[in-house]
């Protein structure tokens, strides 16, 4: 039985070589085992440092950084919604608002139904599409499209941003464990994020609690650059990590 388990685990790794992210339910069906049995295999592989697990998915270790947003939106959905409901309180009617690419900022979109006459600026094609049903102006920043994240970057995007004065910017992050500020895995998005910080009156970092335990590759700001950080309930040790922010708001 143990040999069969190990053989199945090796087959899982082979499948992940072909596709960096797989649904756990579909894997269980493929191997003709229960999801409970498969999760035990994945637990072993995760302990070995060979895979990452998220809600309903397993990911190749080196593939997690570039997860499609379709997968990321399924992680920590309740925590992100709590943050989104708090975030919209800091938006004024008829203001110019920037939404960074990401699943937490995407969660804010639905709450713009509570606001009037905003101009919403974003480099995220997914966010722009989600806003179409609402009565706000949408300014999609032009530029080179990153197909993986469906966002625009590069010199054109930076040039567009130079002509926009932003009242409130909601910024995301891939994590900041052992860092003095937020980080991103995307080198292409780095300069866009920094330009947005320059162009914005009120800068707000939105991050669910999981980001305290993750780190991206490229730092793009310091916590002190933000007027507010909106996150979920955290313990004193976690609060100390972001204590240089001007204000910490608990959603």
From TrEMBL:
<dbReference type="InterPro" id="IPR014036">
    <property type="entry name" value="DeoR-like_C"/>
</dbReference>
<dbReference type="Pfam" id="PF00455">
    <property type="entry name" value="DeoRC"/>
</dbReference>
<protein>
    <submittedName>
        <fullName>DeoR/GlpR transcriptional regulator</fullName>
    </submittedName>
</protein>
<dbReference type="InterPro" id="IPR050313">
    <property type="entry name" value="Carb_Metab_HTH_regulators"/>
</dbReference>
<dbReference type="InterPro" id="IPR036388">
    <property type="entry name" value="WH-like_DNA-bd_sf"/>
</dbReference>
<dbReference type="InterPro" id="IPR001034">
    <property type="entry name" value="DeoR_HTH"/>
</dbReference>
<dbReference type="InterPro" id="IPR037171">
    <property type="entry name" value="NagB/RpiA_transferase-like"/>
</dbReference>
<keyword id="KW-0805">Transcription regulation</keyword>
<dbReference type="GO" id="GO:0003677">
    <property type="term" value="F:DNA binding"/>
</dbReference>
<feature type="domain" description="HTH deoR-type">
    <location>
        <begin position="5"/>
        <end position="60"/>
    </location>
</feature>
<keyword id="KW-0238">DNA-binding</keyword>
<dbReference type="GO" id="GO:0003700">
    <property type="term" value="F:DNA-binding transcription factor activity"/>
</dbReference>
<dbReference type="Pfam" id="PF08220">
    <property type="entry name" value="HTH_DeoR"/>
</dbReference>
<keyword id="KW-0804">Transcription</keyword>
<dbReference type="InterPro" id="IPR018356">
    <property type="entry name" value="Tscrpt_reg_HTH_DeoR_CS"/>
</dbReference>
<dbReference type="InterPro" id="IPR036390">
    <property type="entry name" value="WH_DNA-bd_sf"/>
</dbReference>
